[in-house]
């Protein structure tokens, strides 16, 4: 028997303010943490984050992530999924022209690279080169606090399969 976290719709309305505050606080903490690690403006941070998520989507779809790829080891290029500028615009909600301009600037500044397969990716070794490992603890600590709050109010609950 396994456990999973599920939402509890009947408690969401009763605890709307608590749930939204918790989620927005998590967003702000993550934004602040990522902005400190990647010195760019808000639009470029949104693009950078969108590219980061897209680049690991193949790995994240695996039922079991290979142990040697779960940490900060450099991903082999065959595991990295490039993302097009149009897909960045769709995923982020930014206008296509805005994405195009910012991506060009980010490539020029070395924050993104053109992939030979099309689209863009992060440079190889970005986690190590930018010293991003320590940032994870702060974001997870805030996530845990928010999760405890949502569990306490019943907005989410643990359910047995």
Automatic annotation (TrEMBL):
Gene3D superfamilies: Winged helix-like DNA-binding domain superfamily/Winged helix DNA-binding domain
InterPro entries: WH-like_DNA-bd_sf (IPR036388), WH_DNA-bd_sf (IPR036390)
Protein name per UniProt: HTH crp-type domain-containing protein
